[in-house]
Amino acid sequence: MAAAPAAAGSGVGRGRRAAATVAAWGGWGGRPRPGNILLQLRQGQLTGRGLVRAVQFTETFLTERDKQSKWSGIPQLLLKLYATSHLHSDFIECQNILKAMAFVTEERKLTQETTYPNTYIFDLFGGVDTEGVTKRLAEKNDFVIFLFTLMTSKKTFLQTATLIEDILGVKKALLVIAQAEDAQEMIRLDEVPNLSSLVSNFDQQQLANFCRILAVTISEMDTGNDDKHTLLAKNAQQKKSLSLGPSAAEINQAALLSIPGFVERLCKLATRKVSESTGTASFLQELEEWYTWLDNALVLDALMRVANEESEHNQGTRDGSPERSVQSRFEGQKHVSSQAVIEPSLLVAVSASIVLPPPGASEENGLPHTSPRTQLPQSMKIMHEIMYKLEVLYVLCVLLMGRQRNQVHRMIAEFKLIPGLNNLFDKLIWRKHSASALVLHGHNQNCDCSPDITLKIQFLRLLQSFSDHHENKYLLLNNQELNELSAISLKANIPEVEAVLNTDRSLVCDGKRGLLTRLLQVMKKEPAESSFRFWQARAVESFLRGTTSYADQMFLLKRGLLEHILYCIVDSECKSRDVLQSYFDLLGELMKFNVDAFKRFNKYINTDAKVFLKQINSSLVDSNMLVRCVTLSLDRFENQVDMKVAEVLSECRLLAYISQVPTQMSFLFRLINIIHVQTLTQENVSCLNTSLVILMLARRKERLPLYLRLLQRMEHSKKYPGFLLNNFHNLLRFWQQHYLHKDKDSTCLENSSCISFSYWKETVSILLNPDRQSPSALVSYIEEPYMDIDRDFTE
Length: 795
Description:
By secondary structure, the chain is mostly helical.
């Protein structure tokens, strides 16, 4: 028997030919049938009746072949599934087989010991080639646009939303793989017919799931390639984008913001309260079982639909005739699911939530027998709301970082998103019973996979985007806390922050504590190994970023933030570099120019100064922002005549350490040496700016030539003359290209350092002066044989 070639694009030709060859002699599961086994398998895929073909192999053969191909028992499970999926078969047994398949899938994802992916195995034994189909559909923008029109019907909404989300996800992945830089290839929402009417007619449940689609369409492409994340590559892409016009993501964001009431509805959905029952002891074990299955909100929607219909059913009708029974409605759900691309776990999840009445159960007054278990568990209603809020918060976060940021800020302030989230903080976002012990099957307690954990992280990311360099950050406080800021300014005899005075008190948080204070409370209780620490520190740091505010710093200092940070850095034995970097950055913003903060710091760290300084020096990339803030503070303190300042200067070991020229030169040498133009990213460009701060302050004291001469000597001591200064020269050339055309970045530099941007530019120009006779020019300290200052950045 000759093996027919695999269909074009299937990507599994070799495996299928092998299967066909074995099938020629391996038996047909009983009586032989005419025709090529491969053709029959393919026919099964095209007709959707693939499981019929799976039984053509004997279980013995599948078991033996499994040992070689590492199929993890999936073909055998498919065989059993077919045998138990007839009309009168044992439904519980079918459910157990599906569970086993799900567990196998999770284990395979973790071990990655198999030769073939799950989709290939399922496809090989007669399943639908979902990957190939989705790729082909992703190439047809007109088809995707058409699918949006099917979302007008509630009956087809869930299945259509699932399909659109999958297609767009594949489409975005294909663009990344192809390194397609033109984001216009993503669909444009402004091409969807009657988009405004379509979205406006969504109910809140539909709108939340529509956000899953928006998450793909309004976010810029992320290549996942480190080389593409360099500032050099980003600048080149931005230049290209200017010639091409707005990206598809930007166009889609603008299209959404033009829909009347869109942002308001998102804010209402994000802040909608959930009624929780008081009994939560049994909920934990129940929820862990659900976690094993629920990997998308659409499954939960199906569950909610069953629960809603059950509620309507229990009410009955006026004429006394019963509606369809729970079983018949479930059968209807199975029918719908079989017609769309929905995971088998959907059926399991729906069935697991409902215990069907036993056959022959009595019905009184025309109403079927019901039990408490026919109702959707309260825990699932809570989880349903969590999944909704995840999607909505992500969309709001993306919009906050887009071109229309100020417009979005104004709207979410007006619609009271922040006070609403504050009211949900204890009951839903950071509820006590959402312990980290609840983990997905096959994962550990440190995974960021569960909906509870993901909601917390998305919430913190939203706070970071909301507070960063925006005066609306004071909406995170309540009226009493705003009064406290005013009192701090009054006591220090300094002017009140203008943004505090301009804050609309009707839009701030209510209750005993504002959102920022609540965040600080949970932050101080977080375990040392918690992944939340990074995001919490970033969210609080964003509140401090921008023009330094003494009142803001003292507000946080009074709540023990500095001691908490130092404990985490020195005493908690934290090993995560990301967490350490975020805490160093936060510490720098908290202490900058603040004498009281340095006094508190010195009191805590006095006996552990060596440990702290070792942490700073162990990773300068992580700690350089703190070094910059301390260097700037030292410069300001040295120019002040004040007894309190003089006392701090004489006692603080950190200030004394930073003030030494050898220390500054060591930092400067290392900061320049660990970065290059080709490796500059948004994360490490701070090293370049910190080195510039050190040299700008040296220039103020007319010591710039001294520092350059010392760098030259350090080069020679390392036996590599010219390598450091040539690199620094190239870095400064790039700095000019990068910052002179970026208003936002230059403003951030000016606000954070309290050094005018004109002084930054002047210092860079002086250092890049081509005159070798200039004592402040880099070229004056690079010997002619080692000169290499005109290299193309792309080399």
